[in-house]
Amino acid sequence: MHDVGGELTYRGLEPADVPAVLELLTASLAGGPTGRRSAGFFDWKHRANPFGSSPGLVAVAGDGRIAGVRLFLRWSWQAGGPAGREVRAVRPVDTATHPDFRGRGIFRRLTTDLLDRVAGDTELVFNTPNGTSLPGYLKMGWRELGRVPVALRVARPMSFARGARAALARRPGPAGPPRCELPTAADWFAAPDPRLADLLAERELADAADRRLRTARTAAYLAWRYGAAPGLDYRVATVERGGELVGLAFGRPRRRGPLAEFTLAELIVRPGDRAAAAKLLRAAAASGCDHAATHLAPGTEAAAAALRAGCLTAPRTGMVLAARTPTGPLPAERTLADWRFSLGDLEVF
Questions:
Q1: Predicted local confidence at residue 339, as pLDDT
Q2: Residue-by-residue DSSP string for 179-224
Q3: Confidence (pTM)
């Protein structure tokens, strides 16, 4: 039996802490999206991120054990319009408290201390808490902005119906990853298409007029987010026309209980090219899973092509967005409509 009544020390996360942190996260949150919390995944997520290394804090007990951990994933939004600028942000992720030390305010202390640490270089704090954690965030100054909806495109109606019934009955799904016929993003980035630069430049030029916050889709960001992610099995679909690359999408096959889902995280097409967007949406649905799921940001080519591609917004689905500034509440004028998301911006990884 450990004596847990001693004083806790709060300090920055150090490289030597990582094995103990991974053990604590696994005990508290299971294996995460890959099923296993490895040092390689941790380094990719928190050290190789092109937006910057993740700030982190730990609570250390008197006997040297890690009693709690908290990390903020760095992010960068681009605000368009005449006064376009970068909005530096962080996303709270990977937090856990050892069962022996619960009830001692560790979560709140780690969060508030980390907010103080990032206040000098961060403008926005955002995340997608679940129903269990949302009340705690609201008490600490976060504001609920609304639900980011998810659209579905059913590919195999009979299999989808059987899976949906099994999910309602809480029956477990098959073991192992779903089959997917699309090539891997890792292989695609191993020999990247030289035409990607032209597609991204054309897209960025058009997006600069959109005042909503968006993630800048650079080649380096896409390669990190989808090509280098250990164990997440992202796939790629492309559209070519006249020898040019006019569309690109990234997503991953995953189990949703008894259902096999293709989570379409990113879709990039030439400005106004609804035909390419529709083709990519259909390619995601035809990847081999029961259905494809994505977010159709209003005003985008994907949203305009959704009905044509067989996509419908699913009721009572999506992720709740909550946000604040490092120093206090989010300004009242900031709303969900100020963002133009892809599902990859909000997907938990």
A1: 97
A2: P--SPBHHHHHHS--TTHHHHHHHHHHHHTT--SEEE---HHHHII
A3: 0.93
